[in-house]
Amino acid sequence: MSVLPIARMGADVLKRRAAEVADPADPALGAFVQDMIDTMVDAHGVGLAAPQVSRSERIVIFFVPAARNGGVEVPLTVMVNPVITPLDESKNEGYEACLSVPGLTGLVPRYTNIRYSYQDLTGATVTREAKDFHARVVQHECDHLDGFLYPQRMADMTSLAFADVLQSAAKAKGQTVELDEEG
Ligand code: NI
Predict the structure, then answer these.
(1) Class of the 12-181 domain?
(2) Which of 49, 52, 66, 102 pairs with 152 at a CA distance of 20 to 30 A?
(3) Which string of DSSP letters, residue by residue, matches the chain?
């Protein structure tokens, strides 16, 4: 088990396009992916992309808790060379946070309905459809492979906030704010 250091906003590795993985079935990749899982669990994230641990390759891990997906869990998924296709033009806004942008949160528009394909660690191609939070997590994580952090996807920067301040302000008004993504 290895918990790896997480690169934070400003690091060059988070700004560039990550390289395709030539052989997803390479056994050496499995050990790295296990380190990614250990790192994500340690950081209490729902997703992590390889550039966030300073490896500029197209690898993403994530899961979706049942409570955030209509009662149906999306189990831990390892994606190599993922590709996203929006299924229509509809978008929705939700608060996102990122392990590479600690403490902050902001409203981000994302496609509501997507199809995504990837290779698993046997090299097999898997295709899934996703909506809402599941689709948001996949879009957030795959953005890391192209050098984008969520603030660059925000339509209105006035919602950018420290998460604890936002939560306190909401609580004072008797509201709750659901923070959508930590990956
Ligand atoms: Ni992130």
Answers:
(1) alpha beta
(2) 66
(3) --PPPPP-TT-GGGTSPPBPPS-TT-HHHHHHHHHHHHHHHHTT-SEEEGGGGT--BSEEEEEE-GGGTTT--EEEEEEEEEEEEESSS-EEEEEEEETTEEEEEEEEEEESEEEEEEE-TTS-EEEEEEEHHHHHHHHHHHHHHTT--GGGG-S-GGG-EEHHHHHHHHHHTT-------B-
Dist. CA 109 → ligand 1 center (Å) = 15
Active site residue 141: yes
From the candidates 96, 141, 181, 182, give the one annotated as an active-site residue.
Answer: 141
Q: Write the pLDDT tens digit of every residue in 97-156.
A: 999 999 999 999 999 999 999 999 999 999 999 999 999 999 999 999 999 999 999 999
In the predicted structure, residue 180 carries a pLDDT above the cut 80: no
